[in-house]
Amino acid sequence: KDGYDALQCKEAGEWDEWEWFYDHVEKVVIPNNKRLLDCCRKNGVEVTYGRIASLKKDGSDRSRVQSTVGWNDIYDSAKMVDELTPLEDEIVVNKTTDSVSLGTNYTQILHNMGIDTVIVTGVVTDQCVASTIRVLADQGFRVICPEDSCAAATQELHEAELRIMNVIYCTVLSTDETIQLIEEAAAQGTPAID
């Protein structure tokens, strides 16, 4: 709520339009992602990260949708939320497109590690999350999207995008259901999730 984008919304008198998003991220998305990270790490599920980060100061390496004013020179500022910081041996992919798989070697990395199923979380649901899910599905991965570990600008956009993607591109579950799936697979010694 104290970041650049939030402050811009407040200065422009648009905070009411964005309050749900920031509250949802702070009170629901971050804590649920932390729970998922802890569960994955405990049960040997590989953790990877994708983040928007231009490689050039002028942002010319970014896709058209990403290379607008305000999105340039963010390599150094593309930091993870403190509670969700990657551990030493976890992969972080810097993406210049909405999808973490498009324009990066992320898909090859997953194939190299023998990963078949990917859990996708993050912000925003109807942009980067949806783009990543669709590309991964098209590339043959099974995808799970814990709905309460993601957020869009509004609850309506969030729910609409999840309805569109569910079943066709991914399986939409809750964070609790995803954790249960991971723990059950670990207890059986047969990881259903990579």
Secondary structure elements and their pairing?
Layout: H1 4-11, H2 15-42, E1 48-52, E2 91-95, H3 106-112, E3 117-119, E4 122-123, H4 125-138, E5 142-146, E6 150-151, H5 155-165, E7 171-173, H6 175-188
Parallel strand pairs: 1-2, 3-5, 4-6, 5-7
Helix pairs in contact: 2-6, 4-5
Q: Can you tell me about this structure?
A:
The chain has 194 residues and is of the alpha/beta class. The protein has six helices and seven strands; from the N terminus they run H-H-E-E-H-E-E-H-E-E-H-E-H. The chain has helices at residues 4-11, 15-42, 106-112, 125-138, 155-165, 175-188, and strands at 48-52, 91-95, 117-119, 122-123, 142-146, 150-151, 171-173. The strands form three sheets. It has a three-stranded parallel β-sheet. A two-stranded parallel sheet has the order 1-2. It has a two-stranded parallel ribbon with strand order 4-6. The radius of gyration is 17 Å and the shape is globular. The model is unreliable at 70-75 (pLDDT under 50).
